[in-house]
Amino acid sequence: MIAGYVQCGKPKEAVELFKQMEEAGESPNEVTVVAVLAACADLGTSDLGRRIHEYLDKCGYRKNVRVCNTLIDMYIKCGCLEIARSVFDEMEERTIVSWSAMIGGLAMHGEGEEALKLFSKMTRIGIRPNAVTFVGLLHACSRMGLIAEGREFFTSMTRDYGITPELEHYGCMVDLLSRSGLLLEAHEFIKNMPIKPHGVVWGALLGGCRVHKNIELAEEAIKHLQVLDPLNDGYYVVLSNIYAEKGRWEETARVRRLMKDRGVKKTPGWSTVTVNGEVHEFVAGDGNHPEAEEIYQKWDELLTQMKPRGYIPNTKVVLLDMDGEENKVQVLYRHSEKLATTFGLMKTPPGTTIRIMKNLRVCEDCHSALKLISDIVDREIVVRDRNRFHCFKNGLCSCRDYW
């Protein structure tokens, strides 16, 4: 039943059932552990996962490769990269799944160089990569802007290992080229694919168009996305944002009307932070939390320290046609990741890492703010958004740049 809940995308129910099992006096076996660790990974909360980790050490289950692989995956998805690496390093036996999980995890956390070093070590000892390994490598190259290396890995898949690229690999290459500003090449790459591109491939091009402000190719991408993935609100929002950043409010409104006419609803943004085992969820402008007043007061205190360090609210990311700069600033100050971070600082001891899970992409203003806050409070702040992990520490982020 626990595994069934996980497979059906209901990790909260899986964890609840596991707790009921414990209360009933039943001890978990390897199968149970793998399932509940997967649920913890989906939820992005490591508290229960750490407790299970301790149980595994006591019961000797750590010799089970599948259990260890799931443990690595759980820690990676919860933003605990160092612990995941220690589990990996302590394994007596590693499979290609172990290596691929660690390579992909390093890439996801912005540790692209370490991911490539681990791949070199893997191949030196004779472990043959698989398709998943190359997804991690291509992600690493994309995050680091390593165009030549990415091209070589993509070619090497077939040439050296006989692995036929799948849609995810093509998507990674389009992402690499698009992020690097090679939008026309990325477009040609899509047109020359031997398999039909899906929404994620065109979505990667669309994301690059937003970064490099190419409206013409963005409109081309959205034509395909409206057919391939017509109910995905994210693509419409990106195009709308591209128009808004250029001040083309009529086109922005047209995209919003199109969404309404097609029944596409914008996904509300939320962020969660776990404190003492309890998950606290925030939405933008949240005033319903019982400690909302204290949270806003704490945020104002942080602002007084951020501004002398150069923080200027980036109202360009408020992609709404609203009057008054001050109104836009207030919208920025109430973004969910800022509220979750502030609450975490209030409720956890000094030096504790704050871990935030967000369902949408972190905005540019929040990215700048969290870098400053990490330095001011001398804390590590780890944010998992819909694209990747951002590890803020000493005023820096693990990513090469915001994008």
UniProtKB/TrEMBL annotation:
Annotated Gene3D superfamilies: Tetratricopeptide repeat domain
GO biological process: RNA modification
PPR repeats by residue range: 1-28, 64-94, 95-129, 130-165
Any one GO MF annotation of this record: zinc ion binding
Residue stretches making up the DYW domain: 310-403
Pfam families named in the record: DYW_deaminase, E_motif, Eplus_motif, PPR, PPR_2
Repeat recorded as keyword: yes
Keywords: Repeat
Protein name: DYW domain-containing protein
Organism: Papaver somniferum (Opium poppy)
Lineage of origin: Eukaryota, Viridiplantae, Streptophyta, Embryophyta, Tracheophyta
